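User: I'm new to structure prediction. If I give you an amino acid sequence, what do you actually give back? Let's try with this one:
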Amino acid sequence: MTNIPHLKTIQTEIIDHVGWLRYARAPVNAFSWEMLHETRAAYDALETHDDVHVIVIGSAIDSHMSTGADLTVFADATPEEMQTWVADCHALAMAMRSGTKPILAAIKGVAVGGGLEICLHADLRFADAGAKLGQPEINIAFIPPVAGTQALTRLVGRSAAFQMLYSGEVMSAEKALSIGLIDTISALGGVDKDVQTYAANLAKRPANTLTAIRRCLIDGGSTDFRSGMEIEADQAGRLAADPNFKEGIDAFLAKRKPNWR
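Assistant: Good question. You get back a string of structure tokens that encode the predicted 3D arrangement of the chain. For your 261 residues, that looks like this:
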């Protein structure tokens, strides 16, 4: 079991095998170097924690998911420093996309810039009815650097990604749902509860199968169809060799609940 480190800008909590990673840098969860590095530290701790089966990205501040990078920190940043920032952002994105556990996002309040981009690497995104979402980096002559350009294109499609990034629009949850940026809208103030309920149920599923599904959809979805089938075949073989597969069949035939390993 991995211990979760004490962090200044990120809150962590484990409830019913659901590990919460909440942005917690008042007043608006603007990302500093410390917050970026603590986000990675918290994610790594939850990913390797024995009691965590599902990870949720959320916010400890109801009015703000995040306003993105703290621009006061970067006002005098050199190009070399920004390249280091982007490299650290990319490392976080790749860690999330290559992880073994499902990742959900509970989005509420203002969710723009890098704080939203991190949520783009979740498997599913739930948003509060009052959420406002967008990638307004064009307004400071920049682009989304947390692998946001790549995640957006794969998530909402090339045309919608162009429209989002060209306009810098901050949109309603309803519009975000219509273009596929989010998957579900919760009643006002209800997103954390809804995500916890969904995640706790997901946490009861066989962990090795959840990992296999992630690999097929994330890795397979980023390659050509034939290569994706090879990933699928490899994962199917791994699952067939695991005791969970026999347990699932035995439980189904015996009409009982399975005991997942």
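You can read the tokens as a compact description of the fold. Here is one thing that stands out. The first helix runs from residue 33 to 47.
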